[in-house]
Amino acid sequence: MKKGFTLIELICVITILGLIALIAIPTINNMIIKSREESYDEQLDTIIDAARTYMSANSLKLPSQTGGATCVTIAELQAEGIIEEGEIENPCADNKCSDELGAIDVQEFNGRVDVEWKSNKYVYTYSTNPASCDEEGN
Question: Global pTM?
Answer without folding.
Answer: 0.74
